[in-house]
């Protein structure tokens, strides 16, 4: 259950010295860019949270690892940071950025980046309360391309998600009434077959989409740690097996798209962000045509204009920069770069630098599955 006292805290404590190294390393590279997480700990208890994977789910009160000024300085000096190019996420791994106390640090971090003149895309994901005064402060930013992604699922089983979806609904409505420069996305996730994929849930999502610049939908991240947590909570297995990638069966996707016909809806986060700002997708998904077959024509034209097959020498230069070992195994096609033996950080840095998809052969992207798990697509 949600820890009320932790929610009321107006300030965050200093992180303990024995914080796991997986959390003390507060900058890492993910698909949506450099992820800055110098606050860890969250009382919201969403059962499917990735905090299960970082030995952090039991920490209910937010803790500060380093001051905001230090965190920002380390971010912009990170080897992978490129001014005006590298996408940035803030507090997306181990807390909610709009919790009382945490949002003070969110604003300071954003303002520190903005005051330096950076125009990078910045993604902030929340399922908590956004107040009109919060939006007023965010609207004062002048450089960053800021997107607020409001997570909503419609799940009412408190064992899975104890936070009422009405909170996210209210936040989206506040953004719709007062945000202009700041873009807002209905982040419809996780969609779980047999749980929150009814006609009633779809109708609610369609109504909420009217308050957003775009809707992004996705499935469940179902690792062993998350399945074990649900089993201990008495939740029957949500799927037949665990998976490395998010699970969203073909049948569920088909019904989502049918229900949202005529509304801007996207399979990928960066696609929704790009549409909201009227820019090209920084992940270069345009090369994988079946991902883009639901995108508005106007967005496809923007992405097509910026989609250019990279020169092999440019790819090799980036591969050397990230210390990719097998340079001879790199191949460049019209839709993707293929590499061997890469980490996610290596691939995603190259992908954002090139604005072009980079895949590892050991983890192939099956056609029409859109980078999702095999469950429901066999």
Automatic annotation (TrEMBL):
Keywords from the named record: Iron, Iron-sulfur, Lyase, Metal-binding
Keyword flag Glycosyltransferase: no
The keyword Metal-binding is annotated on this UniProt entry: yes
GO molecular function per UniProt: iron-sulfur cluster binding; lyase activity; metal ion binding
Domain of life of the source: Bacteria
Name assigned to this protein: DNA repair photolyase
Species for this entry: Martelella radicis
